[in-house]
Amino acid sequence: MPVQAPQWTEFLLCPICTQTFEETVRRPISLGCGHTVCKMCLNKLHRKACPFDQTAISTDIEQLPVNTALLQLVGGQELELPALLHCYVCVWCCPLHIYPST
Ligand SMILES: [Zn+2]
Ligand SMILES: [Zn+2]
């Protein structure tokens, strides 16, 4: 699979579930290590650690900072999302797909 340069719209997606961040269930939460994942995925983590680099999350999830800059980007755009969002982190996202999105 060819490596593509990330498009800016990819920053508006949760890298785990590949859903667009939004203000309610999928708030973008900044982890201490610099990664951002949506709150829904964060709540489903089996252990409190960054899924990408395993940095332990020592703060309570409710206390972690919301990435408001991202949230504004999401809210301010009519996004044209790629027609095909591939499952590039299958190990993580596919088990999550079985959950209802609400
Ligand atoms: Zn997510
Ligand atoms: Zn991380």
UniProtKB/TrEMBL annotation:
The gene is RC3H1. SUPFAM superfamilies: RING/U-box. Residues 14-54 form the RING-type domain. This is Roquin-1. Keywords: Metal-binding, Zinc, Zinc-finger. PANTHER family: RING FINGER AND CCCH-TYPE ZINC FINGER DOMAIN-CONTAINING PROTEIN, ROQUIN-1. InterPro entries: Roquin_domain (IPR052249), Znf_RING (IPR001841), Znf_RING/FYVE/PHD (IPR013083), Znf_RING_CS (IPR017907). The lineage of its organism: Eukaryota, Metazoa, Chordata, Craniata, Vertebrata. It comes from Ameca splendens. It holds the Pfam family zf-RING_5.
